[in-house]
Design a protein that fits this description.
794 residues; six-stranded antiparallel β-sheet; 59% helix; alpha+beta; 13% strand; 29 helices; five-stranded mixed β-sheet
Length: 794
Amino acid sequence: MTQGGTGMKIWRIVQEKKYLLRIFLWINCIILLSLLSFSSLIYVNVEKNVFQSEYESSQKVLSQMKFNIDYLDTMIRKLTFSTYGSNDVKALMYLNDEETYVHMNTINKLNANVVANYPFIQSIYVYNNHKKMYYSTFGDLYHKDEELDKVLSADPPVTPLKAIVRKMQTGGSMENPTYDTVLSYVMFENVDEQGVMDGAIILNVKLDWLVDNIRTINQFDSRTQSDLYILDNDHKFMETDPNRSIAENAFAATIKQSFETTVSQDRVHAGEPAGFFSSQINGEKFIVSYIYLENTGWTLLEAKPYKEVYANLKQLMDTILLITAAVFVGALLLTLSASQGIYKPVRRLMEQTSWSGAVKDGSLEPGLKDEFSYLTEVYRKSREQLYEYHLEKNNNTSIMKIYFLKKLISDSYSMNVSEFEDVLKLLNVSLSRDQPFIVCVLRIDEYKRFLSHKSLAERELLRFAIANITTDALSKTCVAQTVDMKDDSFTIVLNTADGQAESVEIVGQALAEAQSYIQKHYHVSFSATVSNPIMEYTAIAAAYNSTLANSSYRYVFGTKSVITQALIDDNTGSVDIEQVWGMVSKFIEAVPKGNALKTEDKLRDVFQQIRKLDYGSIMLVSMQVVYQLKKTIFEMNRTSKEPIAIPARLMSRELYEEETIEQFEQLLLEAVRSIHSEGEEKAIQGNQVVADTVKEIIDSNYFDSSLSAASISEMMRLPAYKLSKISKIHLGMSIPEYINQVKLHKAVEWMENSKLSIQEIMQRVGVENESYFYKLFKAKFGMTPREYMAKRIR
């Protein structure tokens, strides 16, 4: 019984102090997450640095190996090329008759001068296509190499001077031959109709140097079990160890499969020739580094065990966990004290807001929710009661204020003194018929946007702010009564002091202050219109109608404006409407001429004068401008081969719904720009067609020595000056410059891909004067044609 009572008591304390427990748990969770994040960050950074160090070490080894292979590849290429260029070798390569002593001596020279001096050269073949045989420095003079024949007959055909990994018979008998892996470099120039080389030189290279490199690297550190492999350009292992077949090694095969699965060959060949990845092999994780050899098409792979690379990280992880646990235990003790301090205001608030004995002696009655649920319920009920009170209090008052104010501004001229005094009493304001009156009309700017972008609650709040803040601003100098008219406007009736000659200006300043404050804090603006002072209350209705009409001049003066009768009088009357009609005609006449800048300037001049008209004339002239512009476009399309589309803005009803003349003017300017830009774009497209045709003619007839700007002009039946202008814009140079450029580039192609002489190349590109050709070539490439050809041969 005692144990059950103790358990219930503990559970009750937990229920009553849920928020305290939440504070304690949240703080501890944040501390724990921070510690884990910080510890993880340290571990990840250390792991990354160790990983990067090992990767850089592997890349140094692979890069050195790559350098050795590339260096030997370059040396063998040069040796193959120079051997191929020997006249004695070519005589044997293209021999049709019986061999003589001189021809046989060529093989002996190759054996003595090349094979003997370069220990990595296994043998040299001279292939004669006429006799379909190899002359060899290895074995018999007339050599047969079936493995090489298979390689040369494969599809796709071999590339000259590209290392070929292949098997070569080096001993044994016909029944039981022995093979070695060699690299063969083949050099030839032409092939016959069957695609067979007409003659070639083949250098067979031993792999002893490569085997020695790999053995040295694999045995450099016996602790790491690091293994290095080479994949040839067919993604097959290169057999570098005569005592052990790599292809039959299950570990090596798994490394290769992981590489082909993980690394995209397009990525290796294109932009990422080196990198690393991790792989699981026989239940053990390995780090595999790779590097691609562009010259030979090979790929070097190195594998290291993951556990050896990260041997020291486990100790670091244990240390981090120990420190994290110690810090967290200390944080628990500090959190308990901090949680109680944070919780005290909550408990005190519960005690202050308790009702019906819900909270007694610091504890909640059984059945009640946790602390914040309790406070939320108290707030909800209080808010509902307050809302009902304000709703009941304000609804009828607001309706009656609007009713009596509307009666005042619509029927004041028929009211006698007694009726007017009754209205003031019903409005419950301190207005006096003995003081001058001023009527103000406020209008919310961009009202359509106001309705569409604000919720009903937001709109009511903003309307309330406008009315109250503006009333407060005006009340500093006069008595004001503001009523929301429930559309986009508010009406203010106010008394000014006797003898205030500048009362309108004072009211305007107060309205400007209210506008600025509301714009800054509520991000909504309004314009205000102020009447002249009224001495008799009977004139309030007339003043309201006049002020409401004047509020339309927001169209001229813009949003956030304070409009007075004096401002309107100063702005209007200085321009005659007939003068404006004349300017409209000049603008319409300028549209078909195609000068966009002048047309826009004339439209701006029109609207500069329109602003000085009265409101009715402004709207009339504005609509007439739009009508005349559309009519002009229709007339232009009657005579134009490619009609101009009427801008959508000109056809939209929303054009006439803009709140300011500035917005209206801007839309018309955009329409005018689109009209002219469409015409200019069509002209540019036509010129591009001309430029493309000129380029095609030159590219197709560069070999014609009579090709010139004049001949192209005559061919296209266009003036030479126009062709020259189009060429400079679209080709970036004149027609003669482009002709010379094409001829020079074609000449370089012949130099790099043929054995033609310079004179023959000149004839093929249509240049007759040798000195002129040399001058053009040197100006373009910084060297003479002979120097360019000599450099290419080297």
